[in-house]
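seq:
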Amino acid sequence: MIARTLRNGIAAVAGLLVALSTIGAAQAEGLLAEIKERGKLTVGTEAALEPFEFVQDGKIVGYNKDILDYIVADLGVELNQLNLPFQGILPGLLAKKFDFVATSVGINAERAAKYAYTRPIGSFDNVIVVRADDDSIKSPDDLNGKVVATQMASSPQPVAEAHSASLKEKGGDGYGELKLYTAFPETHVALASGQVDAIVLASPTAAVLMKKQPDTFRVVGTIGEPQYLAWVTRPEDQDVRDYLNTKIDELNDSGKLKEWQMKWFGFTFATPKEGYLPEGAL
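struct:
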């Protein structure tokens, strides 16, 4: 009896050592091998940017989800998609709370010096939206003294701030106030209820908003330069970035990416393979 118990114990320890050895070998090969070995991919997403990614009937859906499903099927692993506030997405990546960011992140020089962007999956203009019945704002130059809103830590935030500074340089007062909200849908509510006079949105999101509520909102122009959107990996996980770039290239070359753009946006946009990163990018 004692001998059998001892043999079972030795076998269990041996099995555990084999498992740890396998995981250790996968970790040595890189994060991509580790993901395949563990059989689960965990990604960080903010599902509040329709139609890029949003919650419908209790599930995350949208343009990015179609891309993610293609990648998960190719890897043959289980997907654990975390829905998180955008402000915590990039810090969470560096803290290794998930494997990479699968949500729409605008490419800018500050982020590109700290994080490793994939190939672009989208592009956008920064659009000014006002209430349809507000005749006091006919263009972005009419925002002097107005209360403007956008999402905190989003790509439109620095563009909105720069526009207010530009208005002052032209002799105006700049915005009366720039309000920052946790998520873009909160800015839509604030504008409709009169809490703010205008909001700054990415053009694809503004297009969806106008389609749903054309009698409530009105687009009066764009500010800043066009920007690209991409997913984000940790700089040390070069194998993961290379793999994602390969899959995005496949979708670009096959025409599938354009097909999904038409499905979710009703139009297509540029997703170049070169020239999308600022100087000094990782």
